[in-house]
Amino acid sequence: MPKLLIIEDDAAFCQMLQKFLIRNGYDVDVSFTAQDAKTKFKATTYNLVLTDLRLPNYDGLQLLSDIKDVNPKTQVIVMTGYAEVTSAVEAMKKGAYDYISKPFTPEEILMQIKSALNQEADRQLDSGTKESHKFENTVDEPSENRVVVGLSEASKKLHEYIKLVAPTDMSVLITGESGTGKEVTARAIHDNSKRKEQSFVAVDCGAIPKEIATSEFFGHVKGSFTGAVEDKKGHFEAANGGTLFLDEIGNLSYENQIQLLRALQERKIKRVGSNKEIDVDIRIVTATNEDLTEAVENGSFREDLFHRINEFSVEIPSLEDRVEDLPLFADFFLRKANRSLGKNVEGFSEDVKDIFRQYHWPGNLRELQNVIKRAVLLTSGNTVEKEALPKEVYRSKESNVNVDNFSKADYEKEQIVKALKQSNFNKSKAAKLLQITRKTLYNKINHYNLDL
Ligand SMILES: Nc1ncnc2c1ncn2[C@@H]1O[C@H](COP(=O)(O)OP(=O)(O)OP(=O)(O)O)[C@@H](O)[C@H]1O
């Protein structure tokens, strides 16, 4: 029987949900505080945790990281209020399976839970099989590893660049907003290189605590520090002969940047606590969703390392900037969802297509994929209807419907200025209010030449 934990400070709601899930065949514990939850998930292995993002005295995103640190396989679904979609996207970036907006129906949550547990089972079955990342624009058999190229000019150019750089040994810096496909691109580069038979090791630099980063990268020998109970290979050794993908490279501490640079220059590493030098032959692919040149200018990122990792750079467009590709991706994700959920939904209603075109997709392809998977789960007929979409996706359209008579640009400008005033000109807060990323907000401010 799958073991679930609900973390929710509203005790009455929590107990009601617990009873409902027990009736549906799950073994369910509850916690009303983050502290109690931490004790529980350290003592018990849960298949799935359902947690509120807003908890008293503790950051819900931090709690999500804590859960994943204790057991990366535990699936996490976050429960959010309508206005918290940006945090929900952030939560998915940190490894949450999905989010569900309150209020939700018992059927909705049940389906999400089933889907999350199915995915975990699929993952266990799939582990060990390795399929290459193939480029294509057909969607007949949308396996996990297919890479849709897209038909827009931006996508074609991106694909050209990938094809050109993949067979070389150049280090590649991939930039793009969250969820645009940076990791998928890194894997495609590896799979189309002469290193493809060797390992591809992906490391999220944002998730490694500074104190253990050296040992994570270079390994350690038994007894070199408390907790080093046996010899351990680091990521450099694990990727030897292949490709090391460093995601969120901008999050590395200054000290770790120096160590990384040295390893890349000398092509040798030493495990923590050992004097033995080990030769490494790796190709580095890195990714970031922040502006590294700005980080170099303000001194938080080393310029020499920046040049070392940036022999070639590739920028992945946001979904908003390649809206022509949306139908292709939507179709691909629909078929993928059908396959993984054992369903046979054929397409989207005209209304849904319209909503998709108008929504700004702050979580990019990842968000589109999640929205479609959820919608497929909730759809019993042949076509995905508006009701199967999360409210925030179509609400943003509804708030736009009265502006057809005005110029879209004027309306957008007005909304940006309004959000900036409301947030006291704090751009991060304004971006949240507008439900766009900070980068998109900066681009729009430049685009409209707003003098602020
Ligand atoms: N070209 C593509 N074809 C098919 N699926 C894609 C493509 N690009 C991205 N995806 C899907 O979109 C999701 C997000 O992709 P990915 O994890 O590579 O994004 P990312 O930019 O690395 O995200 P983050 O910035 O959050 O780390 C994945 O589930 C991936 O399968």
From TrEMBL:
Keywords: ATP-binding, DNA-binding, Nucleotide-binding, Phosphoprotein, Transcription, Transcription regulation. One of its GO terms (biological process) is phosphorelay signal transduction system. GO terms for molecular function: ATP binding; sequence-specific DNA binding. Residues 148-377 form the Sigma-54 factor interaction domain. Gene3D superfamilies: 1.10.8.60, 3.40.50.2300, Homeodomain-like (1.10.10.60), P-loop containing nucleotide triphosphate hydrolases (3.40.50.300). The modification 4-aspartylphosphate is found at D52. Residues 3-117 form the Response regulatory domain. This is Two-component system, NtrC family, response regulator HydG. The lineage of its organism: Bacteria, Pseudomonadati, Bacteroidota, Flavobacteriia, Flavobacteriales.
